[in-house]
Amino acid sequence: MSDTPPILVVDDQEKLLRLVVMLMNRIGFPEVEGVTSGPEALERLRERRYALVISDLEMEPMDGIALLREIRADDDLMNTPFILTEASFDFEDINVAHQAGADAFILKPFDMAVLKTKLKQVLNSKPRKREAPVAAESSLSNDFPMLGKF
Question: Could you tell me which residue ranges the Response regulatory domain spans (predicted)?
Fold first, then answer.
């Protein structure tokens, strides 16, 4: 058993879920759990501490944004790092997710180098605070370098 808290992967497509868990194991994260719905993820998160949540954006009945909002609204869970995944993101998805508190985005299929880089950035980030929201436009390009400047 390692000292690192487990990572929780949420994806309603079981094949993709198993693939992400396998990839995470392969790049050095031995303890990765997978669930197939947002409500199930919240239940797990309230039972034990996780180092990170990696969630698909498009899921039913609770999508990745709704799950993220639930996590950020919960005082015990609000500092849990959160990465959204999807085959494609449009600007509106990114904007809504950023405002909801997403730490990063990773496009599917995963590029291993990008996955490792994003994981390192997110897992080494500072805890969030409740007060003083940051202006979205100033932090967007810093938090999401792939977007560049607007």
Answer: 6-123
pLDDT in tens, 16-51: 999 999 999 999 999 999 999 999 999 999 999 999
pLDDT digits (tens, 9 = 90+) for 108-124: 888 888 888 999 899 88
Domains, the chain, with CATH or none: 7-147 (3.40.50.2300)
Sheet harboring 104-107: ordered strands across? Answer: 32-35, 7-10, 52-56, 82-86, 104-107
What is the 3-state composition of the chain as percent helix, strand, coil, each rounded to the nearest 5?
Answer: 45, 15, 40
User: Can you give the pTM of this predicted structure?
Assistant: 0.82
Write out the two tokens for 38.
């947002």
